[in-house]
Amino acid sequence: MSTRVGPARGEDLTEILALLEGSGLPREGLEGHPALVAREGERVVGSAALELYGSSALLRSVAVADGRRGEGLGGRLTREALALARERGARRAYLLTQTADGFFPRFGFRPVPRPEVPEEVRDSVEFVSACPGSARAMFLNLTEGAR
Ligand SMILES: CC(C)(COP(=O)(O)OP(=O)(O)OC[C@H]1O[C@@H](n2cnc3c(N)ncnc32)[C@H](O)[C@@H]1OP(=O)(O)O)[C@@H](O)C(=O)NCCC(=O)NCCS
């Protein structure tokens, strides 16, 4: 069965939250932000979401169901989310990760000291309370060609 990546629908929220929980990612603060899902039939097998703060985007909730990892879905979701961020006018993307700082450099993300993250992004639920202080912040300049 083919897997399609596209916008999340309201009714996907429960499945996305379960996927995040199963992947060890924070669920707090997700609702109300644009999200993408990888869908196989009616089942959600992957997610990515964006919090948009003017010209800055926080990429979050990139997760692929156990058993479906290593098939390129995480890459597809990340690229589509970054394309959506550009479409919405973001010029910079940030993320926080504890376990995947080896995954995101392939899209151009580089570690960035937290104080260099714009204040509006640092004020997000993900930064303030959902992700532990030990999580690494990463940055991507969205105005330099897509990968
Ligand atoms: C990170 C994650 C989204 C990757 O999804 P995926 O569908 O397996 O990724 P892809 O199939 O597109 O890419 C696989 C490649 O990424 C690498 N990779 C996957 N997870 C990685 C990680 N945590 N750290 C470093 N590299 C990773 C694989 O080794 C593989 O490398 P290769 O192409 O050189 O063989 C998935 O492992 C996941 O859901 N992890 C738990 C949640 C998480 O940590 N999310 C990121 C924080 S927002």
UniProtKB/TrEMBL annotation:
<keyword id="KW-0012">Acyltransferase</keyword>
<dbReference type="Pfam" id="PF13508">
    <property type="entry name" value="Acetyltransf_7"/>
</dbReference>
<feature type="domain" description="N-acetyltransferase">
    <location>
        <begin position="3"/>
        <end position="143"/>
    </location>
</feature>
<protein>
    <submittedName>
        <fullName>GNAT family N-acetyltransferase</fullName>
    </submittedName>
</protein>
<dbReference type="GO" id="GO:0016747">
    <property type="term" value="F:acyltransferase activity, transferring groups other than amino-acyl groups"/>
</dbReference>
<dbReference type="InterPro" id="IPR000182">
    <property type="entry name" value="GNAT_dom"/>
</dbReference>
<dbReference type="InterPro" id="IPR016181">
    <property type="entry name" value="Acyl_CoA_acyltransferase"/>
</dbReference>
<dbReference type="InterPro" id="IPR050832">
    <property type="entry name" value="Bact_Acetyltransf"/>
</dbReference>
<keyword id="KW-0808">Transferase</keyword>
